[in-house]
Amino acid sequence: MSRVELRALSKTFGPVHAVRDVSLDIPDHSFVTLLGPSGCGKTTTLNMIAGLERVSRGEILLDGRPITGWAPHERGMAMVFQNYALYPHMNVFDNIAFALKLQRRPRDEIDRRVRATAEALELGPLLGRRIAQLSGGQQQRVALARAMVKEPRVFLFDEPLSNLDAGLRTRMRVEIKRLHQQLRTTSIFVTHDQEEAMILSDFVAVMRDGIVVQYGPAQEIYRRPSHLYVATFIGKPRMGLVAGQLRAAAGNVELVAEGLHLRWPLDGPPPPALAAGEREVLLGVRAEDARLGPPGAEREGFTGEVELLEPLGSDTYVEVRRGPHRLTARVEPDSAPRIGDQVSIRIPWGRVHLFDAASERRVN
Amino acid sequence: MSRASPLIRPVTVYALVALVLLWTVAPVAWIATMSVQPEINYVSVPPRLRLEQTSLRWYAATLASPEFVGAMRTSALVSMATMLLCLTLGTLAAYPLARLNVPHRNLYLTLSVTARMVPAMILIIPMFLLLRSLQLLDTHLGLIAVYTAFLLPYVIWMLKNFFEQVPYALEAAARMDGCSRLGALVRVIIPVTAPGVVATAVFAFIGAWNEFLFGLILSTRLAVPVTVKLSSLVSTTFHSDTSLVAAAGMLALLPPVLLVFVLNRFIVRGLVEGMKY
Amino acid sequence: MEPPCAPHELTLPLILVEQQTKWRMRTTLPEQTELRPSLGQRLHRMSEARFGLLLLAPAALILLLFLAFPLAYAGAMSLFRIELTVSPDWRWAGPGNYLSVLGERAVRESLARTLAFAALTVGTSVLLALGVALLLNEPFRGRGFARVLVLLPWAVAPVVAGVLWRYLFHSNYGLVNALLLQAGLIPAYRVWLDSAPVAITIAALATAWKTLPFLALIILARLQSIPESLYRAARMDGAGVLARFRHVTLPQLRGILIFAVVMQTIVALQSFDLIFTLTRGGPGQGTVLLSYLVFINAFERLSLGQAAALAALLALLIVLLGGLAPLLAAGHRRREARNE
Q1: What pTM does this model have?
Q2: Rounded CA separation A160/A169 (Å)
Q3: Which member of B24, B146, B249 has the closest CB to residue C160?
Q4: Number of Cβ pairs closer than 8 Å across B and C?
Q5: Do A246 and A220 reside in the same domain of the chain?
Q6: Does some domain include residue C52?
Q7: For residue B47, what are the domain limits?
Q8: Chain A residues whose beta carbon lies within 8 Å of the beta carbon of residue C27
Q9: Yes or no, beta carbons of C29 and A168 under 8 Å apart
Q10: Between chains, do C45 and A69 touch, taking CB under 8 Å as contact?
Q11: Are residue B29 and residue B69 in the same domain, yes or no?
Q12: pLDDT tens, residue by residue, B263-274
């Protein structure tokens, strides 16, 4: 019932293009994250959806109706802000009730809805408190309640968790996810934290320099990044990369890099990426796809020295170096090598990500 | 030097504080005394203050003079109206200057700063001619218009400083909750900056109440403010009772002084924050 | 005890979920005729720039009519010969008024007087304000009360301040005479205001009295914002009281002191009200400052063109002196930055 469509949305501040031709289709009931580093245009995009920022070019549709020029309060959306943005001159009850009062709802309905929402977020005992008397987590939940009570068509979140400490952030994340699963209200969430985006979202739009680089289901963004930028931005630890020349030769695919010659047996025709012969690529592999083995094996990988260990408890990440090349592999803590050990690292062909060296686009 | 004696420091501090307070209060205390004593008591050398002769009759006499009461009423009316007008127009102007992306914003701000350097003296003749042609000479409305124009640059600047301190997200939240831009201004920005707005209001009221030059030139009979009335009392009351002038002076000074003492909490912070460049 | 920040199992009561679904049905988008939005909607959807200009318009109108227009008018008048005692006509004078004004002895004397008065006022008030601010920054009992009481003169009208100081230094019933006589410092009551230098000094003191609270207030606010750690660091480096004042306090106060000097210069050069009731320009022309001279030219001699020219020169002086200090400060900062 509340589908949001952005069509070639652009925002310019003087000569600066903050947002450029962003087109997204945000289906009803979905949870969509705009993900990117600061300055990538994600908050500007959100503000344009909210109506807080004027659209320079393009169109916003809500359930098929163009709302591009509408004032924020005409759109039936609610927003949760980074610094909570609670009204300091009102108590908790009045903060939550503000929107309903502006809608001139009957007094008993306001009272009922505010109390029900407050109960649901365990704010019941705090309704009479002043904002300054609340802890950060409590303030964040008041901000959630204030957005929820309106029963908006769309929830907008502008980095709502970035001001909380790590522990609280994790819990609030779960809380927001649960709320969405129950209310099923279309939600658009802005963050620079890729972990947050992965955990919360149905769909993720990765942004850079005002452009959506990739938009798709969260899993797909992780599994099939369409662009080198997405590949390295998403995932922890960062995807390992080897730059080199890729070519098909004698039933093999080969990657020739500085001091390396990797080879994979080719069953079937050469991959479409090599249709035009050899090409300069960046080959990427995630830590969980790389395999460690005893030194010596050189076919689908290389042998190198263990340079760094990152034990997480459940897993250990092992960084292996050979010349200028570094790759990371995930291993069981018990089978982790020691720093300085010589190990081989194997890259399964089925799991590699190939990016064109010039355009940085995915080619496999 | 701080080693000398543990007593020297507090004693010096208290002595200096006493001196500062004496300097501050003495001029007012002296005419306050004059206003409740018969002239003979402070004309004699040395002055004798007889508590049993203390009387409020000079206040009673001053307040019985329809001219003086009329002047007080004029000042009250004009100051209130100027304050309200300044706050309304000032708020409307300060809001876009503080928060909206208005073209030539810096030009307006620079103009409002330089406007404050314009000496009133340069304006009086044109102002006189202007009000004459608008038929506003010697009217309350004329004074209100002139005072508003003269105080508005200060008021806009102060309010702009306060509005700028409100986080952007707070206004955005109000607009998401259903406020129009003006609604957010009235329901959120102004309440959040209330202390500053109060300080600005006091500033405008006092500025209008204490104004003298324009009142002197633009009003003759019907809309004479109390400052002008007082100055004519000072120069015309030669051989009559000086206590009367003192009482009139006290009455002219009381409203702004009371305002400042009652609202001092807002004023101290408000002036400091509001006047900032 | 504070309730836990986030419960482990936060499940919305089913009833609320149902209710929310019902509410959602009621939250409809605003009815709107797609072709012609209402007046209110058009206002809400107006661009920021246009909406901002709309809000600025009323204030701008008032300022144009009652500030900019009179100012321009005064500028025009200064270029004409307008002697109302002779005729109501305007006769083109070009720079004539300026030349004749600058040639007048009364003007040159008044200019010297004005500059002396300004220097005296600015010096006294800024130094006293600094002293008062430092004092009120010290801890002592009753400090809050003292800080409020010190505000008193700020609320007093300059005209009333003139009256107050007139009676303070009055020849017959002045408090100052009485106190000095009692202390044996003068043999008999003196007529203070009949000597021009004394009268100017008293006028400067009275002006300082009136403006000191505001200056002390802003200096005090700056003092309070100096981080305590700076003083601690200076103390660790072995700085005594004076050295701390010289090397920590003063540099931090530089900006606000320059601001105070500028403000006070503007106030001093514009002074009229206070002197009008304190001395009426007397003795003789002894306290006729430039602004007072404009007043005399305009309303006693009715030489409107000359008055306007003189006022324009005064305005120029104010802008020059008012603008000079910040420029000097900026230059100083730049030099300092270079040296570092």
Answers
A1: 0.86
A2: 9
A3: B249
A4: 260
A5: no
A6: no
A7: 8-53
A8: 76, 150-153
A9: no
A10: yes
A11: no
A12: 988 888 888 888
